[in-house]
Amino acid sequence: MPQMAPLNWMVLFNIFIITFMMFNILNYFNFMYLPKSYLIKKSSIKFNWTW
């Protein structure tokens, strides 16, 4: 491809890798974990033991 002859292929590879890594890092740190406090329910049932 003579149109892209001035560009070094190693530079293009590095740009691709850097963009890929930045995309992955931004997605990793932007992902919001929902707190699972709704799953933890403390049962406050009081037992009346009459032995």
Secondary structure: elements and pairs:
Blueprint: H1 9-30
Polypeptide structure, described:
This protein has 51 residues and is mainly alpha-helical. It has a domain at 1-30. It contains one helix and no strands. The chain has one helix at residues 9-30. The longest helix is centred in the middle third of the chain and has 22 residues, at 9-30. The relative contact order is 0.07.
Key descriptive features of the protein:
43% helix; 1 helix; 51 residues; single chain; mainly alpha
Summarize this, please?
By secondary structure, the chain is mainly alpha-helical. The chain is 43% helix and 0% strand.
Total strands: the figure is 0
Low-confidence stretches: none
In percent terms, what proportion of residues is strand?
under 5%
Biggest sheet: strands, sense, closure?
Answer: none
